[in-house]
Design goal:
It contains 9 helices and 9 strands. The protein is α/β, with parallel strands linked by helices. The protein has 2 domains: 114 residues, 3-Layer(aba) Sandwich (Rossmann fold); 121 residues, Rossmann fold (3-Layer(aba) Sandwich). The chain has a 9-stranded mixed sheet with strand order 2-1-3-4-9-8-5-6-7, sandwiched between helices. Strand 5, helix 5 and strand 6 form a beta-alpha-beta unit. Helix 6 packs antiparallel against helix 7. The longest helix is centred in the last third of the chain and has 29 residues. The radius of gyration is 22 Å and the shape is globular.
Length: 291
């Protein structure tokens, strides 16, 4: 007697096919030829700030990079700053929160100039603590031995991971963080619980497992690609539920993170990234790379 194998219906076949598809990381180091430092200080303070910035981004290869320094009086107003950046044409901008403002006295924002650069030019921008708020430049001792990439949807964000990998020092740790929004997940489960045909407990377990499985597989592909490329870093995974700035801040503190890399804009590229921006405002002592 011939035994016929069960035939999958269209929905089952699609589910099996999609379950087998995985987004894999592609290693492509960013090319940095020119770095622009923007500050509103001058003299010795500017020299000290420039030195701290050079130490911070040393993994980029400072001997091969052209540095342009613009201090107090180099521009006038937001448009003047944008025009100056357009003239220099840097690959990366280095500046600090609440540039050209006394708002550094309060930790409420990154400031209008950083926002304008982020939205108007869409260049990677490294934001350090304000030298007026931290005149000792304590963050200059950060060795970028511990760099964290943060996104609430890490899967497929190769550009973010490549920047993080580029800035980790040899033998350092690259922390890849994916935070599944726990409140949104709870809302979906609550909706499912009101549908008699669906088993809530099964949905909760299987859905969460799938949501966390994808970023874990992506992190594994990052680790494999970096190993294959001979990048001498250790990749550490942080895949969990959460959403608050405090959830990220706890991981950053526990792992003594020197630099945080996160997306500057939402996926539609027309607004600052909400979760990441909230975290950026909170981390007044930590250098940030907004990509």
């Amino acid at each position: 007697m011939r035994i016929l194998a069960p035939v999958l219906n269209v929905d089952e076949f699609e589910s099996v096919f999609r379950a087998g598809y995985k987004k894999s990381f592609k290693f492509a180091p960013p090319e940095v030829g020119r770095i622009l430092v923007v500050a509103d200080v001058a003299g010795e303070t500017l020299t000290e700030y420039e030195g701290a910035c050079r130490k911070l981004v040393e993994p980029l290869g400072p001997d091969d990079v052209e540095w342009t320094i613009r201090g107090e009086g180099s521009w006038e107003g937001v448009q003047g700053l944008l025009d100056m950046v357009d003239e220099v044409k840097p690959d990366v901008i280095v500046t600090y929160r609440n540039l050209n403002s006394d708002a550094w006295k309060w930790s409420y924002s990154l400031g209008v100039y950083v926002n304008a650069i982020t939205m108007g030019l869409r260049l990677p921008i490294l934001v350090t603590p304000n030298p007026r708020a931290f005149p000792g430049l304590a963050w200059q001792h950060s060795r970028t031995d511990s760099v964290m990439v943060v996104n609430d949807s890490l899967v497929g964000d190769d550009r973010l991971v490549n920047w993080g990998a580029e800035l980790v020092r040899d033998a350092g740790v690259l922390h890849l963080t994916h935070m599944e929004h726990d409140e949104i997940f709870a809302r979906y489960i609550d909706a499912i619980s009101k549908i008699p045909e669906l088993d809530t407990d099964t949905a909760r377990e299987t859905l969460l497992a799938q949501l966390l499985k994808e970023p874990r597989e992506y992190v594994a592909s990052c680790r494999a690609a970096l190993d294959e490329a001979g990048v001498p870093v250790t990749v550490k995974e942080h895949v969990q539920e959460g959403h608050r700035a405090a959830d990220y801040a706890r991981i950053i503190e526990e792992n003594e993170v020197d630099l945080v890399v996160f997306p500057a804009l939402e996926e539609d590229r027309i607004a600052l990234h909400g979760a990441a921006y909230s975290l950026a405002v909170e981390l007044v002592n930590t250098p940030l790379l907004m990509v």
